[in-house]
């Protein structure tokens, strides 16, 4: 509930290095309390660079003239480091100390996108048995074509004339009171089939709308 109510910070990062053939622009929609060092870790994961081998500097946003690299080891929340909720925060990803970023080596056995992109469900209740890695450190394969749009929002795929239903689902998702009430609901697997449980499936859908890195799900 607190995560849903926390302000979000939209970061648009332009890769201005020569490490790749085509310079990429990636988007992160982060909670305002995210530490700066976590920002660097998330950027590294998304662009495929080794963390610590690149710098982030302010981009061409309004009233931004400081070109000093952002402190990548700081625990300071991004909201206290000059990032503003409710607007686009432009950053440039640059070479570090004159050297190009190191590209993360591809791990063997991770080429199957379906295996990498695991479902992220509602957080397990305290004391429950489960693999918390599925919720905290997901492994994704990123694509500049399919990545989340610069607005930070995730869409719904039209499954043949479902636009009316998609509109309703997005409206419910964007209603905080409804969304938070749904997140509080607890699914009891011993009493109900998850496949046919509408509240459970709606929980799954809302969490993906809130956390997925795709343009649409």
Automatic annotation (TrEMBL):
Question: Which keywords does this Swiss-Prot/TrEMBL entry list?
Answer: Hydrolase
Occurrences of domain USP (ranges):
154-217
Give one Pfam hit by family name: UCH
Q: Which PROSITE patterns does this one have? A: USP_1, USP_3
Stretch forming the signal peptide: none
> What gene name is given for the protein in this entry?
Usp47
UniProt GO MF annotations: cysteine-type deubiquitinase activity
Please give the start and end residues of each transmembrane region. none
One GO term under biological process is: protein deubiquitination
InterPro entries, from UniProt?
Papain-like_cys_pep_sf, Peptidase_C19, Peptidase_C19_UCH, USP, USP_CS
For whether the record's keyword set contains Manganese, the answer is no
Ranges for the region named Disordered are: 96-115
The organism's superkingdom is given as: Eukaryota
Instruction: Look up keyword Hydrolase and say if it applies.
Output: yes
Q: Which GO terms describe its cellular component?
A: cytosol; nucleus
The identity of this protein, by name, is: UBP47 hydrolase
């Amino acid at each position: 509930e607190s995560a849903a109510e926390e302000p979000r910070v939209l970061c648009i990062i332009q890769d201005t290095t020569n490490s790749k053939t085509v310079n990429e622009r990636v988007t992160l929609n982060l909670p305002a309390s995210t530490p700066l060092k976590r920002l660097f870790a998330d950027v590294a994961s998304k662009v495929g660079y080794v963390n610590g081998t690149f710098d982030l500097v302010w981009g061409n946003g309004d009233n931004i003239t400081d070109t000093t690299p952002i402190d990548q080891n700081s625990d300071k929340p991004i909201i206290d480091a000059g990032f503003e909720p409710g607007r686009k925060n432009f950053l440039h990803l640059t070479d570090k100390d004159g050297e190009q970023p190191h590209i993360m080596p591809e791990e063997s056995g991770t080429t199957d996108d379906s295996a990498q992109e695991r479902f992220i469900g509602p957080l397990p209740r305290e004391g429950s048995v489960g693999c918390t890695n599925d919720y905290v450190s997901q492994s994704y394969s990123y694509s500049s074509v399919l990545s989340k749009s610069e607005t930070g929002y995730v869409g719904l795929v039209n499954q043949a004339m479902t636009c009316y239903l998609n509109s309703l689902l997005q409206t419910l998702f964007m209603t905080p009171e409804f969304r938070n009430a749904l997140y509080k609901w607890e699914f009891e697997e011993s009493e109900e089939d998850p496949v046919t449980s509408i509240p459970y499936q709606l929980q799954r859908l809302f969490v993906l709308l809130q956390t997925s890195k795709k343009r649409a799900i």
